[in-house]
Amino acid sequence: MVNHHQFYDRYVLVMLQREMLSANDSLVETLKNGKRRVTKKSLRENPRFAPTKAYISRFIQEHPDTIEQYRGDLNTKFVPLDPAALSGKAAIDDPIIQAHLSKIEELPTGRQHAGEYHDAIFVLLQFVFDWCFQSFEKEYETDQGRGRIDIICDNYADGGLLAEWRTRLHASSVPMECKNYKSDLGNNEFNQLNDRLGEKSSKLGFLFCRQIYKPEEMGKHVTDRWLRHGNCILLFDDRLLKTLVMFRLMRNYSGIERILRLMFRDVENGSHSKLLESALT
């Protein structure tokens, strides 16, 4: 996801300054000391380089290395504080998290173990996202008690991707559903979470399952909800959850954000990213 204004000011204009100087464009000024320059102001005011989304999209296509640099900078610039490290609890918490992760790996599928699966997911999510999500609650009642959300939390991110999503997707809270099924999820499961999302609540939701057998089919489900309703459902299986937990144990916040960015890109484009696969192996 690109912040067009930031990308234009910090990357497009800098690249254009170099290109205009190299081409000795009419925007080049020569100062009294003989130094040549192209100002960002002159570039902004030139109709050739108007900061429209159409121009920026064309620029990205012509300069793919620039957008990769931008995304790389996003990943490295935002480094949140580790609450557990600050409090000294990390040495206690980390082994507990490892135990819950092992419990999920050994837990059978099926309704009989749904509560255990739900409980383990609840603990692991509080750990993975403790730097941006707070006020986790299980079995959250909705619609005056007529419905329930498996897990919900509030988004307090003060930087990085989750802060962007709080604005773009109205994600001040994030509802989550957990399905301890043996098979792939179907329309009913996606619709259950999709019905919790919307303009007046949050347009971001997390859906957890044990294994994704047909990623292309599951990708169609999430992309359909995005294109029809503007709702972003991110689907996590055990393997993906384990990767997030391991990244969090290593304090690799940029790795967590990178996975979420790749997942969101797949939702937007109805694809299954090879980069995401490589991040999980």
Query: What value does the Rg take, in angstroms?
Result: 22 Å
Termini separation = 24 Å
CATH class of the largest domain: Alpha Beta
Give a count of the beta strands, DSSP E runs of length 2 or more. Answer: 7
- Mean pLDDT, as a whole number? 87
In the CATH hierarchy, what is the architecture of the largest domain at level 2?
Answer: 3-Layer(aba) Sandwich
**Pairing-aware structural class of the strands and helices?**
alpha/beta
Order of helices and strands: HEEHHHHHHEEHEHEHEHHH
Total of domains: 2
Oligomer: single chain
Strand order of the largest sheet: 3-4-5-6-7
Write down the overall geometry.
elongated
Count of alpha/pi helices: 13
Give start-end ranges of low-pLDDT stretches.
none
Stated plainly, the CATH topology of the largest domain is called: Restriction Endonuclease
Strand share of the residues? 5-15%
Helix content: 40-55%
**What summary fits the major beta sheet?**
5 strands, mixed
Question: Topology, please?
Answer:
Blueprint: H1 4-23, E1 29-30, E2 36-37, H2 40-45, H3 53-62, H4 64-77, H5 83-87, H6 90-106, H7 114-128, E3 133-142, E4 147-155, H8 160-168, E5 173-179, H9 187-194, E6 204-209, H10 215-229, E7 232-236, H11 238-249, H12 253-269, H13 274-279
Parallel strand pairs: 5-6, 6-7
Antiparallel strand pairs: 1-2, 3-4, 4-5
Helix pairs in contact: 3-4, 6-7, 6-11, 7-11, 10-12, 11-12
